[in-house]
């Protein structure tokens, strides 16, 4: 079933244990198409712009390595948080990624990754 | 150090921080160049056009009751032109390639124009005191 951006982000925030912020980001421009959660400790606009550089750097690195592959997701582990980046695969989602920040003490990484994949699969941009 | 030199330093810092910028320019709201750092030779005309665009932008925000003018982003086929208010008397114009990270550009230029606003305003304050 197709779900829209707001619903997908809300679902990520409510159904994924430990979620503290989520955003859908266009990495051709570095701007967020939608955000939920976050706050003064986690500015999702800054996260969108910054993680755009992360995704672009990885894409470029793979090009230089001659890898004919697609990025499925990127995990960044911090002391107290997990940051999960999942690239959209649908025909309308090209050039976009879902960004999810998790509280490391509450999150189940395997479960979160699985749930984010399901949400991404149903997302209609 | 003169205010122009300090503004120029801010612009250089901006160019170093944001990839894919092709030019940055600080001007007064009436179109005089304060400082610039760009490869393009048409600085004067860009400053003049900035002043004109700023005028339209200000009237637009006023007519639609959106408050003070903050910024204006124009996207062309070959890149972006962005204009940011830097206090009441100055403005920062940025040229960027199409692949620029606009989200990042906005964050960095907003910070930069706030600092340029402080520099320009403090100088204007000093000149007014001397009179």
From TrEMBL, chain A:
It comes from the Bacteria. This is Secreted protein. It comes from Streptomyces orinoci.
From TrEMBL, chain B:
It holds the Pfam family Robl_LC7. It comes from the Bacteria. Residues 8-96 form the Roadblock/LAMTOR2 domain. InterPro entries: Roadblock/LAMTOR2_dom. This is Roadblock/LC7 domain-containing protein. It comes from Streptomyces orinoci.
